[in-house]
Amino acid sequence: MLGRTASALFWLSRYVERSEDMARLLDVGYRISLLPGIGNGGHREDWKSTLVSAGCDGGFMNTYDEVNERNVVNYMLFDDDNSSSVRSCLHTARDNARSVRTALTREMWESLNTTWIEFSEIKPHHVTRNKLPSLLDWIKERSMLFRGAMLGTILRNDTFHFSQFGAFIERADNTSRILDVKYHLLLPQNEMIGGGVDNYQWSTILRSVSAHRNYRWIYRDSRPKPWHVAEFLILRREMPRSLIHCYTWLAESMNGIEQIYGERSPSMDIARQTYDTLRAGDMTMIFASGLHEFLQNFVTCNNKLTTALATDYNFA
């Protein structure tokens, strides 16, 4: 496969996944903003944490003077200058899809193209506060439709594996950022850990990754516990958006590429090392050494994997 084709497939899947992740992060911000603000900036801090989690805070502050719901929603959904806005993600994904149209199935192309056309017709002023949740649900559904089309129709060849790389590297990045920001921004300083606000925020974060019911099934907690939530989103491979689940799939696709090309690349070693770290992970040790430090190191390794893939397979 040509390097530019592998690159287009990688970034196509990564940007589709990112559009869903942006919708999930906005859903967190929206749900938490429904709770009365408690000191330290109230709702402003809720929306600021959404920007930080998405990695969009720097660009936002260069564009807007005030952090509020309307500005954050516009920036994360519609702003063309924000490369991670849903509009930018869908536009870039569609451009990549067009460049490798013959590598995609009809179902994959039509699901993505229809999503772009329908989203393009939505104007920022159409998205009132009561309509925001339904729009975010629609974005998530369209991303899942594309992924379902891919899983149900594409050959399990290098096209499939490079698509998997993009989707799961992006998903792992998003999960790690959500967890990291929770520990540093979401809990008000005057609220005890385990208090009402804290429990509501943890429940909201679980819902943002479609994990609230699954969490209760696994742990039987009447109220989410930070220790269990962190373990669920890091080390439980049953959870589809956990870090270990993402790297289980990445390791499998690395093995698939190795079998197809008959050689082992440095990127495979990076993915395997991260996978082995997660597989051997223990929450007692992670908390003892610092959850923030663990997550920051994970993000660094995840970014190194992207760089290594681009080098190994000559991404254009």
UniProtKB/TrEMBL annotation:
Residues 1-313 form the DUF403 domain. InterPro entries: ATP-dep_Glu-Cys_Ligase-2, DUF403. Pfam families: Alpha-E (PF04168). This is Putative alpha-E superfamily protein. It comes from Breoghania corrubedonensis.
